[in-house]
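Researcher: I'd like a candidate sequence for this fold, 217 residues long. If you have to choose between options at a position, lean toward the conservative one.
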């Protein structure tokens, strides 16, 4: 009886250890793409004038095609559900017109980036954006010398990477491979990972909360 109980406890502990390990591995994998989102976002926050200029350039006639620009614009329009207001003279411009309109108000675009919760992205949208990203080379050599475009593309790619990991977390919790309560904390968090990381950078605390004894002005 004692041996049976001991064996059962070892099996249970082994299952718990494996679940805990898998959960930690999945969470660790989130850190790199989240950091990449933050890096891109911080750059764009410091270059709002360039964002506006980039938006204006989208509708100017350019010699030859601009497939990378159109693909990145398509990614953003799909991700954030931007639609063209169809202003006069812009009919037929599609996603470029929609994205150009958004970039006229760069702070709103940056807020969309900051607030986007990767865990809330539906699989269908992830698949659509991932398909578009397959055609985009994030390297500046392909995107040209426009660092704004490169950073927007980098943010989108990292967001999709995070979203795919969250899909794995959701599936693992459903199968009982990781603790469902802990998974729910990640999946149901009302705050985006990139906002939390930026807050932590500003406060020096992992959860972004102010230091002990800190008083708001």
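Model: Candidate sequence:
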């Amino acid at each position: 009886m004692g041996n049976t109980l001991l064996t059962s406890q070892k099996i249970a502990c082994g299952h718990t250890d494996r679940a805990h390990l898998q959960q930690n591995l999945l969470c660790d994998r989130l850190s790199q793409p989240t950091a990449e989102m933050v890096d891109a976002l911080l750059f764009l926050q410091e270059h709002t004038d360039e964002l506006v200029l980039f938006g204006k350039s989208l509708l100017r006639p350019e010699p030859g095609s601009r497939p990378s620009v159109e693909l990145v614009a398509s990614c953003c329009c799909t991700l954030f559900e931007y639609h063209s207001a169809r202003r006069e003279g812009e009919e037929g411009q599609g996603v470029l017109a929609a994205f150009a309109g958004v970039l006229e108000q760069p702070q709103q675009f940056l807020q969309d980036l900051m607030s986007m919760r990767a865990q809330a992205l539906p699989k269908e949208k992830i698949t659509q954006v991932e398909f578009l990203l397959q055609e985009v080379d994030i390297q500046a050599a392909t995107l040209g010398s426009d660092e704004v475009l490169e950073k927007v593309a980098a943010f989108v790619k990292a967001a999709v990477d995070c979203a795919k990991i969250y899909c794995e977390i959701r599936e693992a919790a459903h199968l009982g491979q990781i603790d469902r309560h802990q998974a729910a904390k990640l999946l149901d968090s009302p705050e985006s990972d990139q906002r939390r990381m930026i807050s932590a950078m500003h406060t020096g605390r992992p959860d972004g909360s102010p230091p002990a004894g800190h008083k708001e002005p």
